[in-house]
Write a structure and sequence with these properties.
By secondary structure, the chain is mostly helical. Helices cover about 75% and strands about 0% of the residues.
């Protein structure tokens, strides 16, 4: 029981850390692609150090057949970060985060085609109501938020599609456990992002001020390396239902920070839309009573 309580606290802490990401992103004067690369590099160093300290080894002989899938999911993870960081630049943290949390709904909608899973009545209701939530957040027909607002939502939804793709690809990876999988995906993201950065913005770290450097180190070390180590350490001792519930700490913390610290507002339709997405996505992830 004590072990389970400790794991739940660790999982809750990692989700809280994930929810505080956006304000740090906004204080780093590099492109989203660069930020994604530096995040992956710093996280790789932290996770590798953690594995060395805990004497964990990656069983390359057992997973070599799944390396192409790991490379693909790592590339998706890197592009997903780029799109999410761009979303933070164009719209509020609340709207970007809630739009991004449409990803589980996408997974539910696509799974019947990929895995021959039958959609239940409950899943159809959750999909329909979460889609309504996105419509309310987007404010289709109401352009008062401006073109930047719509652009930010499109970036966030694009990030959601990429995140859903990573989740779906990972369903085909069966011989790699959590933290090993994440490390290899970070390495894959680095391999994909380096040529992208060279071909586009180049390295602009020289433009960072002291605040930018601090925020970059916090994102790489705390939000990625430390938070992922805590997440995967706790996940093995927590039930799927507990993990599903605790995962909603992330968007709730992000929304609270957006409204209280950043002074960003949400209209009543966006609040209702966010509640629909979070509520029905959570209901979809919880097991159905027999």
């Amino acid at each position: 029981m004590k072990s389970n309580n400790k794991s739940r606290l660790m999982l809750a802490a990692s989700m809280s850390i994930f929810g505080t990401l956006a304000p740090f992103v906004r204080n780093i004067a590099v492109t989203s692609g660069e930020l994604a690369l530096y995040r992956a590099i710093l996280a790789t160093i932290i996770i590798t150090s953690f594995m060395v300290i805990t004497k964990q080894k990656i069983p390359f002989r057992d997973i070599r057949k799944e390396l192409p899938l790991l490379l693909l999911s790592g590339a998706g993870m890197g592009i997903n970060w780029i799109l999410l960081f761009e979303a933070y630049k164009y719209t509020t943290v609340s709207v970007a985060t809630l739009s991004y949390y449409f990803a589980p709904v996408i997974v539910t909608a696509v799974s019947p085609f990929l895995f021959k899973e039958k959609l239940t009545k409950k899943q159809l209701i959750c999909f329909a109501m979460s889609t309504l939530g996105i419509i309310l957040i987007t404010g289709i027909g109401d352009m008062s938020g401006g073109s930047n607002h719509i652009t930010g939502i499109m970036f966030a939804l694009g990030a959601a599609v990429l995140y859903a793709s990573v989740v779906l690809v990972n369903k085909f990876i069966r011989n790699v456990n959590g933290i090993h999988r994440t490390l290899l995906q970070f390495l894959s993201a680095i391999v994909v992002l380096i040529p992208y950065i060279i071909a586009t913005s180049g390295i602009t770290l020289a433009n960072l001020d002291a605040k930018g450097w601090i925020c970059l180190l916090v994102i790489g070390i705390v939000h990625t390396g430390l938070a992922y180590c805590m997440y995967f350490t706790a996940l093995k001792d927590v039930s799927g239902q507990q993990a599903a519930i605790l995962s909603y700490i992330d968007p709730l913390v992000a929304v609270l920070i957006s409204v209280t610290l950043l002074g960003e507002s949400m209209n009543i339709m966006q609040i209702i839309g966010g509640a629909l997405i979070l509520g029905f996505t959570l209901w979809n992830e919880l097991p159905q009573k027999k």
